[in-house]
Amino acid sequence: MGDRILVADDSRELRTLLSTQLRRIGFDVQIAVDGVEAFAKAREFKPNLIIMDINMPKMTGLQATKKMREDATLAHTPIILLSSLGEEQDVVEGIEAGADEYLVKPFRQPELAARVRILLRKSNSAAARKLDETTVQGLEDAEDNNEAVRRFKETGQIVSKDFAGFTIIDKLGQGGSATVYRAMEPIHFRPVALKIISPFAAVKEGFLKRLRRSNEISVKLVHPHIVRTYTMGEYESVHFMVQELVEGHALDRYTAEGAEPLTEPLARRYMLHVAEALSYLEERHLIHRDIKPGNIYVSQDDVAKLGDFGLSRLQEDMGQTAEGYLLGTPHYISPEQANGEKVIDTRSDLYALGASFFHLLSGAPLFPGDNLQQVVLGHLTRERPKLATSAPHVSPAFCALIDKLVQREREARYQTSAELMAALSALPPA
Question: For 205-232, how does the pLDDT look when each residue is reduced to its tens digit (9 = 90+)?
Answer without folding.
Answer: 777 777 777 778 888 899 999 999 998 8
